[in-house]
Amino acid sequence: MTSRERVLTALAHQPTDRVPIDFGAMRSTGISAVGYGRLTRHLGLDVPILVYDVVQGLAQPDWAVLDRFGVDVLDLGRAWFTEPSDWRDWTLPDGTPAKAPAWFQPESDGQGGWRVRGDHGQVIGVMPRGQEFLTQTFRPLAPGAPLALRTCREESEGMSRVTSLDDLAHAMAQVTWGRCACAPWHPGLDDQRWEEMRIRAAELRATTDKAILCAFGGNLMEWSQFLRGFGQFLLDLAERPRYAHWLLDALTEL
Q: How many CA atoms, within 13 angstroms, populate the side-chain half-sphere of residue 43?
């Protein structure tokens, strides 16, 4: 079987010649860039370390690595950032040279680490010296945050919405996951963008026999926690269920 046949057959719950293998076709099956560097050195492979996910510090597996392990699935995101100019020099916490997306321009924290700011200058993520990933430090809908106070309010007759989905989308853009999104979700979405995704997916499909995966990120619970705070949203579910339901519904609509 080809990789694509193997994956599609498995998804149809039919017997395959072997179990399909995924390695880095989405962020949940990825590998840390530091670990990836150690792996490629162990294998004797001289391949670049491309940190495509700067929030989690994940590396995009090289074709040589995919072939070495018989990987069957590709991330559609690799159809972007295909030119050398799309990447900039980066150094991993263990000192290994690597590349990061050219658009990723964090500022130094003056102590060997990095930080990322949102639209209004607030620090939304930090990567202290020696840390391999960005830690979210700003929750735009946390209690007392200016945007949270005008997002929605509870009244005697129920939830009254005082903001639009555009406001919620803006709040999401002030979270590290929205600010530093991986390809193909790094720019905004419109009809032209969808057409570009279709074309690039078709090109990738025509040049490989592997299955192609596009992770759309429908993680509603996590996004509620990114926006409100992990503990706070659990309290919302118990103490302010109308607010929690409104937020989950709005995220689902977006």
A: 16
